[in-house]
Amino acid sequence: MTLPMGRPMREIFGETVAAIADDDPRVVMLDGDVGSSTRADIFEKAHPDRYLQMGIAEQNMLGVAAGMATMGLIPFISTFVSFAVVRPLDQIRVLIAQTGLNVKITPGYAGLFTGQTGMSHIIVDDMSIMRAMPGMVTVSPADDVEAAQALRWAAAYEGPCYVRLVRDATQRLFDGTYQFVLGKAVVVREGRDVTLISTGTQTPRTVDAAELLAADGIEAHVLHVPTLKPIDVPAIVAAAERTGQVITVEEHSVIGGLGGAVAEVLSEHRPTRVHRIGLQDVYVESGTNDDLLDIYRLSAARVAEQVRALVGAG
Amino acid sequence: MTESPVGGVHADEITRLQEVARQIRLEVIKAVYHARAGHLGGPLSAADVLAALYFHVMRIRPDEPAWPDRDRFVLSKGHSSIGLYAAMALRGYFPVQELATFDAAHSRLQGHPDMTRLPGLDMSTGSLGMGISAGMGMALGARLTGHDVRAYVMLGDGECQEGEVWEAAMAAPRYALDNLIVIVDHNKLQQYGWPGDGPDGRIPPQVPGELVAKWTAFGWRVLEVNGHDMADILRVLEEAARGDGRPTAVIAHTIKGKGVSFMEGHYFWHTRTIKPEEFAMAMADLGEPLPATDGDAR
After folding, report:
1. Active-site residue (options: A11, A15, A44, A58)
2. The domain defined by A9-163 carries CATH number 3.40.50.970
3. Interface residues from chain A to B (CB-CB < 8 Å)
4. Digit-coded pLDDT (tens) for B11-54
5. What was the ipTM of the complex prediction?
6. CB of B152 within 8 A of CB of B73?
7. Domain B5-285: which CATH number of 3.40.50.970, 3.30.70.260, 3.40.50.2300, 3.40.640.10
């Protein structure tokens, strides 16, 4: 039994920020000429006077956002992760993160699901980069429900933050009762044999993998970590103590990403062996979503296969 | 005392601002000499325009640095920070004595401007090319929030080699931001520059006319000014403040190291520190007796 599909986060993005702007005149949308892809066009339709086309010029766009924030506005950024993080990285660092200005870096196209674009558009290390930057909150929602809540949290938060969103429809993990809390991880499956720690839209697949493992008699404990920074140290320590074996699973580089973050936490607070499933120092090629999940071993079946081997190896 | 206006401004106001510019230069020399660090050529070339902005043109309240309706200033060429600090101190944002802490640990006067430390700084800068984008955001934000605010941005001419400058130059006219005024401190030298047959074996960052042609082509109103002629500076900045539907680029023709004879026109005074005998010469050039402590505490 697998988790059902939810709605694409990019539609949630356009709708949610438009709804926030209904009530808050300070909210503006800065678009790097991809509004028809990130669905900032939904916002544009609702608030044409506050949709600001910035053209294909992302360094300037992030700088403009900083300047607008000093005037009391709340800019949301519409572009792809590739052009929101690595291209204008210095602008984010000098003008937004160090200054603590109230800019919401909310790009779509996180992870592998980028419409078969290949290595230029698939950024494998955005969480590593953003969580390492002093002053930058880093959030990676699991599904459409959590994405909507994270965006509402971001609008209410006074300061810079990074909320990475996904282009395509992905599986829905949470129901309407879920409440995103910044810095809080959440146990999404109870188990006693092995601890799986996951983030972003990988978490639903990790939960599915746990169900496959259960069929083999392995009961996995699954912890979802939506906030990479500030990270939930007590929850990660408790999850490690639960089984004594930790495996991180992420649709992202294991270097500096969730795997790196969990290893940092546990080596300092409760030394535990950590295996890291995810992208292993690679650039990603173009391909269908299913093909990429298979190639990079992040489908539920592929994750289950790796966990089985690791548990079997003790 | 004269009653004859010069370009609409009384001559005694011109004289006052010229003296302010001289004071800025003195404070720049003293602070950099004391810190044994920092930049000289750029702050000295910018001093006259900074004096005009902070003492005549901008609508500001030094005793209320966060006043929402103030005009904004962004020093995009953040390495000239000491020039800005000197202007702000003389204008009353903080005590002039604090300039002695420039570049030192725990100082509010960081090597490059840090808005989180010093009230009155409208943006943190230092990585070149960024300030113009922030200034554009301020001008656009002022429009959206209904504030009559102008955003002034000072760029270096070497800085105009940064791609981000031209991203902003492309974008700002599309919003008809005539409350955005960029001043290019066109001192014709950058930190090191390309080798060639110019002064000291280096050539200027642009060929003559290049900046005017570029800003014009991007849809900006372009005004040229002698950046060391106070009456001319005031005339042009007042014209710039009268919006015509376009952002304005003021190309200020300046001399790097202006005011200190042996620094003028030499690229290597971008960052070189000052020896005691050079300090004495600089003071003499600026018409100032040597301070009793000779300005050097160490």
Report:
1. A58
2. yes
3. 28, 49-50, 52-55, 57, 59-73, 75, 90-91, 93-95, 98-100
4. 999 999 999 999 999 999 999 999 998 899 999 999 999 999 99
5. 0.96
6. yes
7. 3.40.50.970
